[in-house]
Amino acid sequence: MPSLRCPCGSGLPLDECCGRLHDGTATAATAEQLMRSRYSAFALGDPGYLLATWHSTTRPPVLELDPDVHWTGLDLLATTGGTLLSAEGTVEFRASYRVSGRTGAQHERSRFVREDGRWRYLDGVSVT
Ligand SMILES: [Zn+2]
To answer: Which residues form the YchJ-like middle NTF2-like domain (predicted)?
Structure first.
């Protein structure tokens, strides 16, 4: 059975891309990798991974994903920091979705910092 294409748009099979982060085989080396894997977790409906990669100071107690929202694509627009050697970084992205026959996009600049050496999502601001 052919492997599912990764939702993050890398063009790779899921199990060679964000799937390795979701199942704990690998950890994100860069903030951009974590961003991609979190988008894929939204697209695949994996709130556990989203909570696990949320910074402890901003993580919500529970996360319910809206099953009516279908994520249809991710565009990375800009990054700062977030490299192998960085302690923090930002990723600006546009995530497209479809809900109840309508399409829309979430345009956000997310902040990522390391916690216990691993990249975590801190927070994000909408870009309009
Ligand atoms: Zn991916």
So the answer is: 30-124
